[in-house]
Each structure stands twice: as C-alpha cells, then as structure tokens.
Amino acid sequence: MSDIRYALRTLARSPGFTLAAVVTLALGIGANTAVFSVVEGVLLRSLPFPHANRLVDIKTVPERYRNGARWGGTSELTWYETWRTAPGVFDDLSAYIGDQPILIGPWEAARVESWSVMANFFPMLGARPLLGRVFLPGEDRPGTARVAVLSHRLWAARYGSDTTVLGRTLTLDTMEYVVVGVMPAGFRYPAGADVWLPLGSYLSGPDSRERARRQGYWYVGRLRSHVTLTQAQATLDVVSRRSWASEPGETGRLPLVVGLHDYLVGETRTPLLLMLGAVSLVLLVACANVANLLLARATARGHELAVRIALGAGTRRLIRQVLTESLLVAAFGGGLGVLLALWSVPALVGLAGAELPRVAEIGVNLRVLAAAITMSILVGVAAGLVPALQTARRAPSDALKSRSPNAGGDGWRHRSSDAFIVGQVALTMVLLSGAGLLARSFAHLVRLDPGFEPAHLLAAELQLPGTRYALPQARIAYVQQALAARRG
Question: Going by DSSP bridges, is the β-strand pair 147-150/175-182 parallel, antiparallel, or unpaired?
C-alpha cells in the first residue's frame, strides 16, 4: 500500500507523462478487448445447448467434390429416413426449412423469418419454452392444426411480453396460426428466427410432394455419445450409396457431416484470428511506447533513485516501486480501454452485419473483462520490466555522477532504448503497410465500374406467399399480371 500511495503521488506530479501513457495503453487494450469480445462470442463460446459438442450439421455435396470440401448444400426431405435410421449414429435427427412470410396484425405489417421444423427439433436441442409448449409429435404431419411458437424477440416487440399471448391468432401471409409457446431469450437457433412453425403446415397444400422432394432442407442431428464425426461420416456414406438404387435422383451425392459449432462459425475463423493478431501488434507498439516513456522517466529520476539507494533502499524495493507505477498506469489504461471497448463493440458488430455469425452473443462479458484485466497486468509488467532492470543495474555513484555536465552516457540504457525504437518502427511499418493495402482495396471497390449507370436505380425482391401461389403457373401468372398493370 505504501508503494501504491507513493506511485499515485508521483504520477499525479507528472500529469503529462501519465496522460500520454494511459491513453496510449487504452487505445491498445481497448482495441484488443473489442476484437477479443467478437472472437470470444463467435469462436470460443460453446453453443447454448446441452452436450453441444455432439450436435452436427449435415449437408450434401457431389461425390467428386467431397474430398477436401468444408461446406455443402441443403438436402431433400427424402434423405431423412435414410440418415435417421443409420445404425448406431444418431440419438436423434431433425429437418427444418426457412421462409420469410409477412406478419399481419394490428401493427404495421412486416416480413419476419419463420422456420418450419419437425416436432423433435426443440427436444433434440434440449430447449424448453418460456411459456406454453413446443410442438407435439403429430403436428409435423400434413393436415394437422396450424400452431406457432414465438421467439422471445418477437414476443417482446409485437406483444409487449404479454403472458396471455398463448391461444391468440398469428397471421402469416394470410394464414392463421395459434400461438402455443414462447421460447426464452437465450434460444436463438436458427439465429434470426422470429417464429417456428410445425413442418406439417409447410407440407400441406397441393404441392406437398414437390416440397418434400425438391425443396432444400437443413439437417441437425445429435450423435450418440461414443460416435465421432469420422465414424458418422463413414456410416452415412454407406447408407447413402445404398439409397441411390431407390432414389435415382440422388445418385452421386453424399452427406457432409460437420460439427454444428464449426458450421455456424463458417469462414469467419481465419479473418477474426487475423484481426486479433493485427490489434495485438497495435498493443505491442503501445507497450513499446510506454516502455520508452518509462525509460525516459527512470533516467530523469536517476538522481532521486540513487539517493534512495544511498540511504539504504534495497534493489528489490526499487524494482517493486517502478513495477507498481507501471502496473498502475496499465490499470488506468485498461479501465479506459474497457470503456472504449463497450462503446466500440456495437459499432464493430454493426459494420460486420449479417456476415458475422452468432451476433446476438457478442458483448463485453465477464470472460472478456477477465481477459482485459490479464492483458493490463501483462502489459504493465512488460512495459515496466526494462526500466525496473535498468534501475537495479545502475550503480548509485553512476547516477550521481550523471548529474555532472562531464558525465558520460549509459551504454546499456542507450542500447535498450535503441532496441525499443527499432521494434516500434518495424511494427509501425507493418501496421501502416496493412492499413495502406486495406485503404487501396476499399478505394478500388468504391471506384469499381459495375458495367451500368447505378444512379436512380432500385432493386427489389418479390416473395409470393407459398400458400396462395404454391404452383409455378400461379406465380408466373401473378408476375405477368403485375407487369401488365405497371405498363398500363
């Protein structure tokens, strides 16, 4: 405590040095904290499901492209029984398909994201509703009652978190569904889901067979406890090849089994790690800057430290004092850096947009704060270590003589300072080169000629309700009628 009080007094007497060191470290620690919060939310945090390491995503890919493939395409519903009954692979398997219907009600109409799922979808993921129930086993067959389960986000936004929402009617593309459940805020799978519908509702209608055989479905399964991804892949390959005889349209396509977490992370792992490496270089530059400031400060205080040694202060005590000052500067810089991260993380996520998976789980949580504290301690020790060692190695007589105009320089100090300067210049050149390349790429994209005049042009996507325009002829007739009315 005596060292801390003394360090606070000395830092207060040098506000310029203190401000420069704190702000320098705050920028480096803040940038690392912000990027680490994204890395932690996307890459490091496990999925919020029981035994999430056993959950897998299954896609199909042409056999000739299977070797080395990381991602595949959606699959027809006809694959379900083939994969589900594979011997000794799954505890459970579920299929689901997405849509974007229009939500109609007393509020403003809006397009929402709906997912039609099998009845075992929620139990397989280990998810329980906040209110009501999930789907019953018979509700994923065509012709059953139209029911719906709301996401917590939709329930709060459209119904004001009203607990009497169960039993009310929900209108999607003119079709009415009865609300039977609400999921908790922590359940976000698929990530953008607003409402879940039973697969039976999707398969109802005149084109139900077409929807089952030709539409692309997503598959998620839970492996048995002793089954690895390699074993599951090998077994599904065998049963898939056997099915080619009964399903000629599927010939030449094989499943691709990927851990659900790896699938959700997608191609963002490498860019995020590269970004984390880049901001780590920024932190190293900041650390070198502060170390140079501390070296200059230790040199200026050389006479004071020499007098303290002459009066009986031990080497360990002086080293401890210098490290205490460095750690205090790092602590203040870390605190300011965390505040900068709290402000910058939402902006960082907003810039990434839909390209960043698991966006809702990104934030400055306890794990990120622990990393920021650890980072501050390491930076404080690293920045103060060289000045502390210089203080310990310098003889009191040399420090006292250095006050004389005829005194020579300290070669060891100059070599240490030169090493830091060389390191700073090298890291700064790397960062400036990378920033220049990014700026040039951005400018090239902005000036890219699209091959047409983009001014005053608009693009629109037309999505017709599948319940009213199920057949291709009906959709074509609507488009032709709309174009004719527009020309008229």
Answer: parallel
Q: Buried (b) or exposed (e) across 209-223, using 16+ Cβ within 10 A?
A: eebbeebebbbbbbb
State the pLDDT confidence band at 151, using cuts at 50, 70 and 90: very high
* 335-361 residue pLDDT tens: 999 999 898 888 777 776 655 666 667
Q: How many alpha carbons fall within 13 Å on the CB side of residue 111?
A: 8
Burial zone of 485 (CB within 10 Å; 0-12 exposed, 13-18 middle, 19+ buried): exposed
Q: Are 147 and 139 in contact (CB under 8 A)?
A: yes
Report which residue type is found at 432. L
User: Both tokens of residue 343?
Assistant: 């402000």
Q: Please report, for the chain, how many H helices and E strands are present, in that order.
A: 16, 12
Reply yes or no: is the peptide bond before residue 50 cis, omega within 30 of 0.
Answer: no
Q: What is the dihedral of CA 313, 317, 322, 326, to 10 degrees?
A: -160
Say which DSSP state 89 is in.
T
Location of structure tokens 């205090």: 328
pTM beyond 0.85: the answer is: no
CB atoms < 10 A from the CB of 191, how many?
A: 13
Nearest Cα to Cα of residue 86 among 58, 124, 53, 120: 58
Q: DSSP letter string over 202-246?
A: HT-STTHHHHHHHS-BEEEEEE-TT--HHHHHHHHHHHHHHHTTT
Sign, CA dihedral 368-374-378-383, equals positive
Residues 379 and 330: beta-carbon distance below 8 Å: yes
What are the tens digits of pLDDT across the range 436-488? 776 677 677 667 777 888 888 888 877 777 667 767 888 899 999 988 998 87
